[in-house]
Amino acid sequence: MSTLPKVAWIGLGIMGSPMSENLVKAGYDVTGHTLEREKLDRLTAAGGTAAASVAEAVRDADVIVTMVPASPQVEAVAYGPDGILENARRGALLIDMSSITPQTSVGLAAAAKEKGIRVLDAPVSGGEAGAIEAVLSIMVGGDQADFDEAKPLFEALGKTIVRCGPHGSGQTVKAANQLIVAVNIQACAEAVVFLEKSGVDLAAALDVLGGGLAGSTVLARKKDNFLKRVFTPGFRIDLHHKDMGIVTDAARTVGAALPVGAVVAQLVASLRAQGDGGLDHSALLRAVERLSGARV
Questions:
Q1: Is there a contact between 119 and 112 (Cβ–Cβ < 8 Å)?
Q2: What is the pLDDT of residues 207-232, one digit of tens each?
Q3: So what's the pLDDT on residue 2?
Q4: In terms of DSSP bridges, do strands 124-125 and 118-121 run parallel, antiparallel, or are they unpaired?
Q5: Which residues of 42-60 are buried (b: 16+ CB within 10 A; e: fewer)?
Q6: Which of these is catalytic: 174, 222, 223, 242?
Q7: Ramachandran assignment for 143, one of left (phi > 0), alpha (psi -120 to 50 degrees), beta (any other)
Q8: Among residues 117, 87, 289, which one has the least CA distance to residue 194?
Q9: 30-33 and 49-50 strand pairing
Q10: 3-state secondary structure of 92
Q11: Which run of H or E residues covers position 139?
């Protein structure tokens, strides 16, 4: 019998499905719940167990992981008579890997403490590819002892795993991550349009740029998206719009100016308003093309 903790996984989307499957591969007993039947079938095919409700999934779990789109969804699965806090056992560890506001994480930790449930906020970076390959960067907020307990589980999901401070710190670092990623994608998109309008071999140009100081994980991961104009979502514009709202609000609260970030946040919002919210965030290229007179 496995000595690994029993895991309940709530949320089996683009990120949650491969992440939960990596835990199954690592030997964890994973019971999952989500709203889509086909995602539950995928988990069971991988060796996990499907649960019909949040309450059923978490009842016997040692560790509960949530990976849902935003703060409202975290609150929906955490609170209420059918939620995590009312149905998880005392002493369980709740790890929220969603990207939400730091304030939501702090509030969840406080509410869970009253129920004897420990909490870590542990958002991730790396996108769908990083989730599939188990090479995510995981930024964690919460108590050191809980982090140490969760470290083996994190190691089945990612490669760079860092406790950043108390509750909410993981979400603050994730907000900074999303700021950097959005600005980087925007810069890459502008460079692509500039290069193409200048008549340069785009593939060759991106290869050489990737080998120099302009190289980045963003450029390496999104190069094919730019070259092929394929924007199948690894991380949707809708979600990055939400994250840019988080970072601009958090920065305002602490008095940090984000002049470039504010512009990119508006460009993301504009792209979403034009109907591209379901595309990958590399579709910022489409916004630059429109501004440059291209018919998209």
A1: yes
A2: 999 999 999 999 999 999 999 999 99
A3: 72
A4: unpaired
A5: bbeebebbbbeebbbbbee
A6: 174
A7: beta
A8: 289
A9: parallel
A10: coil
A11: strand 136-141
Residue 116 region by backbone torsions, left for phi larger than 0, else alpha for psi between -120 and 50, else beta: left
Task: Give the number of other Cβ atoms within 10 Å of residue 293's Cβ.
Answer: 8
- Kindly report, residue by residue over 92-128, the tens digit of the pLDDT: 999 999 999 999 999 999 999 999 999 999 999 998 9
Strand 136-141 to 158-165 pairing: parallel
Residue 247: left (phi > 0), alpha (psi -120 to 50), or beta?
alpha
For residue 218, give the amino acid letter: V
The span from the CA of 33 to the CA of 295, in Å, is: 42
Find, among 37, 36, 20, 17, the residue nearest to 28 by Cα: 20
AA letter at 274: Q
CB 34 within 8 A of CB 12: yes
Tokens read off for 112: 């869970």
Amino acid identity, residue 173? V
Neighbours of 285 (CB within 10 A): 27
Could you read off the pLDDT of 22-63 as tens digits, one per residue? Answer: 999 999 999 999 999 999 999 999 999 999 999 999 999 999
Residue 223 annotated in active site:
no
How far are the Cα atoms of 97, 227, 288 from residue 291, in angstroms, in the given order? 36, 19, 5
Q: In which residue are the tokens 């302009």 written?
A: 214
Cβ atoms of residues 32 and 10 within 8 Å: yes
- By C-alpha distance, which of 98, 106, 95, 113 is closest to 150? 95
| Contact (CB, 8 A) for 203 and 227 | yes
DSSP secondary structure letter of residue 282: G
